[in-house]
Amino acid sequence: MESSSSSSAAGLGSVDPQLQHFIEVETQKQRFQQLVHQMTELCWEKCMDKPGPKLDSRAEACFVNCVERFIDTSQFILNRLEQTQKSKPVFSESLSD
């Protein structure tokens, strides 16, 4: 119950700035951990045929390529979303028209 009152207070801007910063940082950490988990799962499924005591050169190259493509794709999507948000009017402004 406490968290719902905190999040609603954050929307009103009446939360301590330090607490608000802490929440933002922790949210970013959580998002990053989710991305790492997604990347690990995706690349493992794509590159790992049969787990063994050593990583062969083909699997290693596959993992490197997979991680690089995942990062590139994530960055592209973030940049694209940022561009579309900048080009669209704010929701409240569009309501006044």
UniProtKB/TrEMBL annotation:
Superkingdom, taxonomy of origin: Eukaryota
Subcellular location as annotated: Mitochondrion inner membrane
One Gene Ontology MF term: identical protein binding
Signal peptide: none
Keywords: Chaperone, Disulfide bond, Membrane, Metal-binding, Mitochondrion, Mitochondrion inner membrane, Protein transport, Translocation, Transport, Zinc
GO terms (BP aspect): protein insertion into mitochondrial inner membrane; protein transport
GO CC field: mitochondrial inner membrane; mitochondrial intermembrane space chaperone complex
Predominant cellular place of this UniProt entry's protein: mitochondrion
Residue span(s) of domain Tim10-like: 22-83
Record keyword Ion transport present: no
Keyword Isomerase: no
Pfam families reported in the protein's UniProt record: zf-Tim10_DDP
Annotated membrane topology: Peripheral membrane protein
Quaternary assembly: Heterohexamer.
Entry text on domains: The twin CX3C motif contains 4 conserved Cys residues that form 2 disulfide bonds in the mitochondrial intermembrane space.
Function recorded in the entry: Mitochondrial intermembrane chaperone that participates in the import and insertion of some multi-pass transmembrane proteins into the mitochondrial inner membrane. Also required for the transfer of beta-barrel precursors from the TOM complex to the sorting and assembly machinery (SAM complex) of the outer membrane. Acts as a chaperone-like protein that protects the hydrophobic precursors from aggregation and guide them through the mitochondrial intermembrane space.
Family affiliation: Belongs to the small Tim family.
Name listed for the protein in its UniProt record: Mitochondrial import inner membrane translocase subunit
UniProt lineage: Eukaryota, Metazoa, Chordata, Craniata, Vertebrata
